Amino acid sequence: MNESCNHSHSAWPPWVSPLTLAYTSTLLLLGLVLNSLALWVLCCRLPRWTETRVYMVNLAAADLCLLCALPFLLHSLRHRDSDMLLCDLSQSIYLLNRYMSISLIMAIAVDRYLAVRHPLWARGLRSPRQAVAVCAVLWLVVGGSLAARWALDVQEGGFCFTTHTRQHTTMVFSLLGFYLPLAVLVFCTLQVVAGLARRPVADSAEVEATQKATRMVWANLAVFVVCFLPLHVVLTVFFAVVLQSCAWKHMLTFSLHLTARLSDANCCLDAICYYYMAKEFQEARAVAPRLKAPKNQDSVCMTLS
């Protein structure tokens, strides 16, 4: 971006700073409580480890790390002459855990898709140990891509958001890190919903369990799209359009700030959504022994676990 344009927070409407402070404080309080509680329940209170439990532990940990980095990141954005090391570190933790959350949501969707549409394959592909391996690979891939982005950003003017050097080379990492998981998530959601709709039902209890599973799948997709799509649409405009007007650059920078804060809300919504997913799983397990068909019993449990 042209450095002659003023992108500082002082050029934004006066209501932005107090609203951002109130929003971020509420988000931090809720997010830290909800994700800490989720980790405690997942690690200490559930009777056995399942694939979804492994993914949810990693998701809660990623959301907690992002929330812990958020205040330092916002401080660096506001005080542009502050410690660059703090800016680099906070942004690295923030981006790592944002795209790790996105990747884990995609992994949960793929796991659910295999359980519903390919139950025979799922028996061999789904296990807690394999879920641990998938999470380890995702951490390595996301961390490696972030390291590559950091190296390129340092060569092109700086890694921190405060430099405003939104280089096309490094922005590709952010866009691919969202649009590829989005495509996978949409595909898996549609396939799971279609599979649930075609499933024969044995009694009213199974009908209710299937309906709850369908609503949960749609809710997960809706939360993902609402939280992350606006931010990446703005990033896509940054990537695709060369703007000469300072007014347009200012508007996009302001939009980037608002949509980034919206994406932060995913840290709270993840914990709520996957709490209900686990709750419906427990209900489905209670219903399953009463089902007449063993095949349906397995499939209902696998759908929600």
From TrEMBL:
GO CC annotation terms, alphabetical: plasma membrane
Q: Name one GO molecular function term.
A: chemokine receptor activity
**Cell membrane among the record's keywords?**
yes
Q: Which GO terms describe its biological process?
A: phospholipase C-activating G protein-coupled receptor signaling pathway; positive regulation of Rho protein signal transduction
Instruction: Tell me, in one coarse class, where this protein mainly resides.
Output: membrane
Per UniProt, what is the membrane topology?
Multi-pass membrane protein
What superkingdom heads the lineage?
Eukaryota
Which InterPro entries does the entry mention?
A: GPCR_Rhodpsn, GPCR_Rhodpsn_7TM, GPR35_7tmA
UniProt keywords, alphabetically: Cell membrane, G-protein coupled receptor, Glycoprotein, Membrane, Receptor, Transducer, Transmembrane, Transmembrane helix
Kindly indicate whether the keyword Glycoprotein belongs to this entry.
Answer: yes
Q: Which SUPFAM superfamilies has this protein been placed in?
A: Family A G protein-coupled receptor-like (SSF81321)
Q: Where in the cell is it found?
A: Cell membrane
Q: Which family does it belong to?
A: Belongs to the G-protein coupled receptor 1 family.
The molecule here is called G-protein coupled receptor 35
UniProt source species: Orycteropus afer afer
Tell me the lineage of the source organism.
Eukaryota, Metazoa, Chordata, Craniata, Vertebrata
